[in-house]
UniProtKB/TrEMBL annotation:
GO BP annotation list: glycosaminoglycan biosynthetic process
Amino acids binding NAD(+): 7-12, 32, 37, 85-89, 126-127, 160, 271-274, 341
GO terms, molecular function: NAD binding; UDP-glucose 6-dehydrogenase activity
Domain of life, per lineage: Bacteria
Active site: C271
The name this protein goes by in its record: UDP-glucose 6-dehydrogenase
Domain UDP-glucose/GDP-mannose dehydrogenase C-terminal: residue ranges: 327-443
SUPFAM superfamilies: 6-phosphogluconate dehydrogenase C-terminal domain-like (SSF48179), NAD(P)-binding Rossmann-fold domains (SSF51735), UDP-glucose/GDP-mannose dehydrogenase C-terminal domain (SSF52413)
Keyword vocabulary terms for this entry: NAD, Oxidoreductase
Catalytic activity: UDP-alpha-D-glucose + 2 NAD(+) + H2O = UDP-alpha-D-glucuronate + 2 NADH + 3 H(+)
Entry EC number(s): 1.1.1.22
Pathway the protein contributes to: Nucleotide-sugar biosynthesis; UDP-alpha-D-glucuronate biosynthesis; UDP-alpha-D-glucuronate from UDP-alpha-D-glucose: step 1/1
Assigned protein family: Belongs to the UDP-glucose/GDP-mannose dehydrogenase family.
């Protein structure tokens, strides 16, 4: 059995590495048009940081796991082809700002249609709007070849930072297939791959549309929990309740459950916002405005959470941060990843810069190039506005906080809990402010040191 995966990103790389690691009898080839990324997958410095990933890749690479830019060869030789390319929010034309941009998906389908010489199972691994499988099937069959294609949906549920453990022991694997004999056979072939290590009862099979829609729904539900607790955090601040205590109290109800109730400066990452907006667009497309508005509010609440965090910093610092050094600890969208896509830090830093602050950033895994690129992309550095010189990226947290008016925690990296806050306090300007956007610090202890400390949803 030979598998090819198109797209060597945060999903394609780890997912295929795990399949190769668990299935000695399967040859897995990950292809990508990005030469730099492929070179990194073949080096000692993998293109993405994920705890435990190096070992999984090293175990299989060169044996039954290969990374290459030879896309056509990979497609031609494979029995099963996963499509795991990016599906960002469209930035132009119809559906701009909401719909998923499917151009990379379509390019893959056309490439497969052109170079395939025998029957293939094509698997949607990317997150896609419901009914995309139909378009893929039509493109594949449009080539008019006598070979047969089966299109399956197999969305990925891994979360970054825990990708390896999520892949090793998934809550479930979801496979959607066509309701026909050929469809069942294709589903079984993919079930057999996962059954190498996933208990059979955790491999769910559905029709294609349910599988596609389940992925968007899962992310919408998860993000909705965060926006719900973040909405309550604002009420906590107004009333003296403590959002962590409220979250604990409601989470002990087994119907609610304790996970995903951590109030924060807002959710980030490449998936939640994109997938909810995609869902909203689909609802509008199908003439369901009330359903669309319901889900869109999850994103509005998230934007509000980021904005009000910055407003609070400005208000607390005597209504101006102009010319003040603000030390930002954490730029990744969550801990244990170097990924910054849609990180709340981008928007918080942009808005602080718009208030003329001097922003000093430290993140253990994000480099200066990524920080500046991200800030540029959200319009922070308009031509000649000079904002670029107000950003500095540090390698050492203690350097970043020196002479700062305020410290702002934006990612919940474990190392931020362990910092020497007395040392930090001593080097800061007074009054020394600290804003914990992740509620990871003990505010009482910080106040004992002398900080003016505040968290999210804290009295
Ligand atoms: P990514 O941007 O990290 O990787 C996508 C890769 O596809 C890139 O390396 C790009 O060069 C490559 N690519 C694009 N077009 C190509 C083509 N025509 N031929 C060959 N390669 C091509 O994206 P990602 O984070 O891995 O996400 C991929 C998909 O998985 C998205 O649909 C996303 O929504 C979904 N997803 C992501 C996560 C996550 O945590 N990142 C989790 C679950 C699902
Ligand atoms: C998410 C889904 O969890 C995963 O199943 C899907 O495959 C991809 O999208 P990811 O975005 O990688 O995964 O990370 P996740 O752990 O979901 O965190 C997303 C964002 O929400 C982060 O910014 C995180 O800090 C934030 N978050 C998460 C909270 O603010 N509070 C929480 O309680 C949980």
């Amino acid at each position: 059995m030979k598998i090819c995966c198109i797209g060597a990103g945060y999903v394609g790389g780890p997912t295929m590495a795990m399949i190769a690691h668990k299935c000695d009898d399967i040859q897995v080839t990950v292809v990508d048009i990005n030469e730099k990324r492929i070179a990194a997958w073949n080096s000692d410095e993998l293109p993405i940081f994920e705890p435990g990933l190096d070992d999984v890749v090293k175990h299989a690479r060169g044996k039954n796991l290969f990374f290459t830019t030879e896309v056509d060869k990979g497609i031609r030789e494979a029995d099963i082809i996963f499509i795991s390319v990016n599906t960002p929010t469209k930035t132009y034309g119809v559906g701009a700002g909401k719909a998923a941009d499917l151009k990379y998906i379509e390019l893959c389908a056309r490439r497969i249609a052109e170079v395939a010489e025998d029957d293939k199972i094509v698997v949607e691994k990317s997150t896609l709007p419901v009914r995309t499988a139909e378009s893929i099937r039509r493109i594949l069959e449009g080539a008019g070849k006598s070979i047969k294609f089966q299109v399956l949906s197999n969305p990925e549920f891994l979360a970054e930072g825990t990708a390896v453990e999520d892949l090793e022991a998934p809550d479930r694997v979801l496979i959607g297939g066509e309701d026909s004999e050929a469809g069942d056979k294709a589903v079984q072939a993919l079930v057999d791959v996962y059954a190498h290590w996933v208990p059979r009862e955790r491999i769910l099979t559905t029709n294609v549309w349910s599988s596609e829609l389940s992925k968007l729904t899962a992310n919408a539900f998860l993000a909705q929990r965060i926006s719900s607790i973040n909405a309550i955090s604002e009420l906590c601040e107004a009333t003296g309740a403590d959002v962590d205590q409220v979250a604990h109290a409601i989470g002990t109800d087994s119907r609610v459950g304790p996970k995903f109730l951590k109030s924060s400066v807002g959710f980030g990452g490449s998936c939640f916002q994109k997938d909810i907006l995609n869902l909203v667009y689909l609802c509008e497309h199908f003439g369901l405005p009330e359903v669309a508005a319901y889900w869109e509010q999850v994103v509005h609440m998230n934007d509000h959470q980021k904005e009000r965090f910055v407003k609070r910093i400005v208000r607390t610092l005597f209504n101006t941060v102009s010319g003040k050094k603000i030390a930002v600890l954490g730029f990744a969208f969550k801990k244990d990843t170097n990924d910054t896509r849609e990180s709340p830090a981008i928007y918080v830093c942009r808005d602080l810069l718009r208030e003329h602050a001097q922003v000093a950033i430290y993140d253990p895994k994000v480099n200066e190039e990524s920080v500046l690129r991200d800030l540029e992309e959200v319009g922070t550095f308009e031509p000649d506005n000079g904002k670029r010189k107000h950003v500095s990226v540090y390698q050492d947290p203690y350097e970043a906080v020196k002479d700062a008016h305020a410290v702002v925690i934006l990612t919940e990296w474990d190392e931020f809990r362990e910092l020497d806050y007395q040392r930090i306090f001593d080097t800061m300007l007074k009054p020394a402010f600290i804003f914990d956007g992740r509620n990871i610090l003990d505010l009482k202890e910080l106040r004992k040191i002398g900080f003016e400390a505040s968290g999210i949803g804290k009295p």
